[in-house]
Fold these 2 entries.
Entry 1:
Amino acid sequence: MPSPQLFHKVLGAAFFLLLCRAQGKPAGTPPLPGFAHLPEVGIDEGFIPGLLPQVDNEMEDIICQLEHRISRLEGVLHLEKKITASGGKIFATNGKKADFHTTLRKCKEVGGSIAAPRNPGQNDAILYFVKDFNSYAYLGIKESLISSKFQFLDGTQLSYTNWHLNEPSGKGEEECVEMYTDGTWNDKKCNQNHLIVCQF
Ligand code: MMA
Ligand code: CA
């Protein structure tokens, strides 16, 4: 006689697989919005009758199971407070400090980019680490050629700002932006030693 716990597990797994098979969608609760279901491949299902739909089903199963495994890993990382997430982005730190340009490089080295909040939710997701490590962090925002006008690093307009009172104040002398421990922003020289926070 299997234990109730085992029975529960088997039932859970069976239910997950059933859901996976039935709809080709992640059965696990997707903890992160924006990890959208992969787009349909550009194959006409009826092209080779009987063959491709089968391949397609297997592919969907594999994708479904991979999504499930990824979502479990994300669950662990959340639980361990190693990542925060908002609006489809994941934020993380290695707990180390660096100047702005080193931060850019470090984030790029691991396949991410320097954290750049697009809305209050993402600002909070970055702020979590700033508070946890009690250290300011540089953001992926820089002064444009027009003094006192700030933009994302790719030159696009900011979608939201959270300047501290009377900031930005550098008038061309402070080209980078740091996040204070209350989440507000200050324009600042780029050579400070700040917490590395990346986005993925
Ligand atoms: C510092 C520097 C500036 C900031 C002011 C605020 C004196 O300069 O951090 O970027 O605007 O403090 O008082
Ligand atoms: Ca300033």
Note: Residues 167, 169-170, 174, 186-188 surround methyl alpha-D-mannopyranoside (ligand 1) (CB under 6 Å).
Entry 2:
Amino acid sequence: MNLITAPRGTFDLMPPQAIVWEWMESTIRKVFLSYGYGEIRTPIFEHTELFQRGIGETTDIVEKEMYTLVDKGGRSLTLRPEGTASVVRAYIEHKLYGQAPVAKLFYIGPMFRQERPQAGRFRQFHQFGVEMIGEKSPVADAEVIILAHDLYRQLGLTELEIHLNTVGCPACRQEYKAALTSALQAVADQLCPTCQQRLVRNPLRLLDCKSPVCQEVISRVPSIHHYLCADCRHHFDQVTTLLEKVGVKYKRSDKLVRGLDYYTRTVFEIINHDLGAQNALCGGGRYDGLVAECGGPAVPGVGFASGMERLYTTLEQKGKIPELPFGPQLYVLPLGEELNVVAFEIATVLRRQGFSVEMGNGAKSLKAQLKTAHKSGAGYAVIIGEEEWRERQVTLKTMADGSQKRLPASGLMEEIAELVSPRLIVPLREE
Ligand code: AMP
């Protein structure tokens, strides 16, 4: 029989790694909450039309990468490839614009794109991100960029580069698009086949191409900064001033456009060069036309999305994953099968007090049980021997140095409480 494996581009998160993810997620939540963002959990699938309208028909995601299915009712549904469109849909559906001038929302969860899997690129991956909807001031752009940067710093990452650009507004971008198209048409034969198509359909997207030949051509095309209208230029200058005011370093990257159609004005990425080809930890920017495009009022928005997998790899590369509690704190070992019930009772009492406890099996030798206890990472073993138990005594063994102490079972809890703190918050009383 064929072995059934996880689908290509997906992976299982196994218990030791899941603990690190849990730590990353709880740090992320804390930082987002402290910046005043509330969590939103939207469905994993949405009507396909949402992404077609919200992300843009000519983007790689919508053209090639969506997992779309038709359900039994004949509806076209798509596994969400990103978070912003869903958040905007929920913002409109729940009329958040009627509740407060600005909505600040964050999300964490799986996303799905049928891309070619490679290092740092999966088909099911996880993103966390924020959306601030309703604020047009450049202060919002700066807040979002600093939030992303501070979040990584909270996790211990310091040497990351912020790449910053503006893609203007629909008016000045139109002029830039025309200038770009005419500059590129003259050298179209030097472009990769994908870019030759992009030139016709969406020339701005061409600036994103990673092919060295296209990169060389792109380095010679005009910069959008020569085409910005006065308002867009002022907005960009204010964002940079605000970042400088609080000492956040950034690199101006005038060819950064990002892969999604909805951006207006500010776009940014935070880069870890050690990640290789897929080196963007996060990307974001302003999307002033998106809410209206999705059927809501004409309100502006700004946000970012960051990948959990790339964050995990970065933390691992830079040695920033802390020692996290994994495995039991205590191991209860009965010496002989007839003491299994006693061991079970002791383990249960300890567990109800919030300690993390595993127990051995008295049918096995002390040596075998101690080996398992060592492997589990438990700090202490409670050994219950036949002779000792006749006097209602047990032995408490410190696994690190092998030292042990005999004590009455009635004093065990007190002794343990001196050595380790319970992992659960609320101790349960006996039933
Ligand atoms: P995007 O939604 O394409 O702007 O991507 C934002 C961030 O999500 C990127 O910087 C990555 O960290 C992450 N990301 C996007 N696509 C993938 C993928 N296929 N696999 C893993 N992470 C991804």
Note: Residues 15-169+229-317 form a domain with the BirA Bifunctional Protein; domain 2 fold (CATH 3.30.930.10).
